[in-house]
Amino acid sequence: MTVPDFETLAHDIKLWAAELGFSQVGITDTDLAEHEPLLADWLDKGYHGDMEYMARHGMMRARPHELLPGTLRVISVRMNYLPEQAAIASVLSNPELGYISRYALGRDYHKVMRQRLKKLSDRIEQRAQQLEARPFVDSAPVLERPLAAKAGLGWTGKHSLLINHQQGSFFFLGELLVNLPLPTDQPVEEGCGKCVACITACPTGAIVEPYVVDARRCISYLTIEQDGPIPVELRPLMGNRIYGCDDCQLICPWNKFANASQEPDFAARDNLHAPELLALFDWDEAHFLKQTEGSPIRRIGYRRWLRNIAVALGNAPVSPSVMLALEQKRQQDDMDAMVLEHLDWALAQQRAGLAKIGRKTERLIRAVDKGMPTHARFEHDE
């Protein structure tokens, strides 16, 4: 193919991608050399936590051409996922509900996007028979956000996520590595400026400096990636977030432009949109597997699911129903030791809250007996 042919092909690729439901497409080369020292420093500081796969392939993450020899270009795509009536704030503000990151309310995006990328590859091959291509959606050591930024899909925000001027950050990314010398797109101007809203809004202080996230403190990592116990000091900060966290995106001013996804596969499932914590906690493992079929949530497994909900129940308002549910769960013969430890913590939190209510009630009674103004009744509460 000649140079004009590749220019036409690049134009057509973007049209085909739009037909397949992608929100935007960009094309870039494979040079990520400037990101290698940043990746090495992040790994050296242990910010990847238990995600040993992040270090397993060394600098290959910054070298797509090593992942698929002969790769000349990366076709980077994004797909909006924010469901209609996302109800982020209303669920987060109700401690009796479980908050699930909005990306996980529908079908597993890995399968959806990979299938679409494969169809895009097939379409390209009809035009360029010499094509060698490989699609990726969080399925290989690839620095997807730097590639997407180079391809012009947005810029890297201070929370390390990609932000788009027109559509915020509620979207998935995917890549198609190809051996074709397609014309490349240009990066867009950074738009964060002096804003640090995402840094200050992070419940656990996981954004340790602009553009750098310590995964070990990130609620998404703690509820999804971490297999063992959640650090005790971070549990109270997690609130009712039981799978992932969207706080840094929720506060971002650019997300006022975020568009709801028109993809049916990403529509929120009723049982996950604004679920009651006690209802979720009542699921046995078989019911968990059934209710999360085709969902990304299933990959964390039942024990981590119970662990996460136990933490949320420990953070919930004092309730006899909550305490009874925790006690009944811990009495099960087959209860996992790691989960049991979180159940005990949650019960201790509930009992401490109950004791505090008792102390306040005693102070109120004493205040009434002494004729003190009731508005001063908790003046000296701890």
TrEMBL record:
Pathway the protein acts in: tRNA modification; tRNA-queuosine biosynthesis
Binding-site positions, [4Fe-4S] cluster 1: C192, C195, C198, C252
Source superkingdom: Bacteria
InterPro entries per UniProt: 4Fe4S_Fe-S-bd, 4Fe4S_Fe_S_CS, QueG, QueG_DUF1730
Domain 4Fe-4S ferredoxin-type, chain residue ranges per copy: 180-212
Binding of cob(II)alamin, residues: R61, D138, T156, L162, L173, S220, C245, D246
Keywords: 4Fe-4S, Cobalamin, Cobalt, Cytoplasm, Iron, Iron-sulfur, Metal-binding, Oxidoreductase, Queuosine biosynthesis, tRNA processing
Enzyme Commission identifier(s): 1.17.99.6
Record-annotated active site: D138
Cofactor binding comment, as recorded: Binds 2 [4Fe-4S] clusters per monomer.
Reactions that this protein is recorded to catalyse: epoxyqueuosine(34) in tRNA + AH2 = queuosine(34) in tRNA + A + H2O
Needed co-factor(s): cob(II)alamin; [4Fe-4S] cluster
Major place of residence: cytoplasm
Compartments, record wording: Cytoplasm
PROSITE patterns: 4FE4S_FER_1 (PS00198), 4FE4S_FER_2 (PS51379)
Binding site for [4Fe-4S] cluster 2: C202, C218, C245, C248
Family from the record: Belongs to the QueG family.
Description of how the protein assembles with itself and partners: Monomer.
Function according to Swiss-Prot or TrEMBL: Catalyzes the conversion of epoxyqueuosine (oQ) to queuosine (Q), which is a hypermodified base found in the wobble positions of tRNA(Asp), tRNA(Asn), tRNA(His) and tRNA(Tyr).
Protein name: Epoxyqueuosine reductase
